[in-house]
């Protein structure tokens, strides 16, 4: 079966709409600007380096130099990705002496990662 056959399988045999279903879904759909924000959030999960950082931080708080060592990436590259993750409110940090310790911003981030991993490994 080729891609065109796959696409045809997803077509209704009789093109009729179901107004009650459409109306119900339309009422419950998030606003367009909220969906754009959600799309931007999911873009943060589209980069393997950022995913590695968040996956590591889902296991433990870590300083930047430890993340760099763990992933085999320069501290400046890690710092750049962490800045992007902080701007998206996925990662937070605090200073401890001479170190910057990073951690996931909240349990939602940990859940998103766990659910995504569960989905791809089932």
What does this structure look like?
A hairpin with a 2-residue loop joins β2 (91-96) and β3. The chain is elongated. It has one domain (18-121): Winged helix-like DNA-binding domain superfamily/Winged helix DNA-binding domain (Arc Repressor Mutant, subunit A, Orthogonal Bundle). The chain has 122 residues and is mainly α. α5 (64-71) crosses α6. A three-stranded antiparallel sheet has the order 1-3-2. The model has no long low-confidence stretch (mean pLDDT 92). The two termini are 24 Å apart. The protein contains seven helices and three strands. The longest helix has 15 residues, at 107-121. The chain has helices at 3-9, 19-28, 32-44, 48-59, 64-71, 75-87, 107-121, and strands spanning 62-63, 91-96, 99-104.
Largest sheet: 3 strands, antiparallel
Total count of domains = 1
Shape: elongated
Q: Under CATH, the topology is which? A: Arc Repressor Mutant, subunit A
Structural class label? mainly alpha
Strand order of the largest sheet: 1-3-2
Query: Unreliable stretches, pLDDT < 50, 5 or more residues?
Result: none
* Cα-based radius of gyration, to the nearest Å: 20 Å
CATH architecture: Orthogonal Bundle
SS element count, helices: 7
What percentage of amino acids are in beta strands? 5-15%
Name of the CATH class: Mainly Alpha
| Gap between N and C termini | 24 Å
Order of helices and strands: HHHHEHHEEH
For the secondary structure, the number of strands is 3
